[in-house]
Amino acid sequence: MKFSNFLFPESRAKENDFTIIDDALKEARLCDKLGYDAVWLAEHHFDGGCAYVEPCTFAAAIAAQTSQIKIGFAVAQMAIHHPVRLAEEVALIDNISQGRMLLGVGRGTAFNFYEYRGFGIDPAEAQERFLESEEILFKIWTSNNYKHEGKYWNFSLPELRPGVYQKPYPPIIRACSSIDSTLEMARAGRPFMMNIQDDETTIDRFSQFRNVMAESGYDEERIEQTVENSWVWRNIFVAETDVEAEKVGAAAFTSMREYLNGNRHKLNTAEEMTRVTAGPAAARNDLDRGMIYGSPATVAEKLKPLQKANIGGVIIHFRLGPMTWEDVENSLTLFAEKVVPEFKNGSGN
Fold it and tell me: I need a surface site. Which of 15, 230, 252, 305 has the fewest CB within 10 A?
């Protein structure tokens, strides 16, 4: 099971943006030094929920300051990107990083309608825009004289430059919120990433994914390879003791969820809020289902169900809400030095 960091730092005031962005770069360098498999970047606009806002530029900075760690998007909001520009940017990052790029794709935020408004995009078009853009990405890195005539984009270009470092292109992993979209990836033989869910739901979804891949004619080697390249998201905080972890981690998680949900209520219109269907009961809002915290031994024990289910990788959000850099640094280090060895040595089984 692979372990990675979801670099998703919150900045509640504009005057703090520089410090938190600088901390995020330090966090990426530390993850590289500690041997994490990947660092993942979010994309959210206008609300301070993600301080660096835009993953392409920030990924290039990380690529220039690290040497081993893979750099992924979780996810690029495809509905608000021109696919040709995104293809160029990803190709450049893939070259700067010498092939460490992972491209997580999705339509964009489900209910932050103000993000679509800020880019002049009708959210009702988001899914169609995403699917058309994804189709373009698969073709644009492998074709010359590529011409596209679609519903949202029409263009003709002789050749995309620079070419990608990884051939035929960097891994493309689709974010799947529902079981239907997950099984669509199974039938296509493609990896997926899933948002916060409890262990029972996560394990069941991976089981269904394997079964549908088998029913679709994929052999065991292809199934295991695809699962190995699929990822699940967890919020995790590690401290020396369970008491300390609860005091710092649980409070930060609760504050983070209140802030993000508060932004939605503050920045969406009243009419837009009537279309928001993810309520407080969603796993990502619930401390018991949406957060793992404790000493290294406690956290390792709580991760064992995922290891036993042969989950491919875990995208871990370490810096939660208003958490200090010092707390994040300690949590990242404890996890790398005391939790990860429990699984790399096989004792997590």
Answer: 15
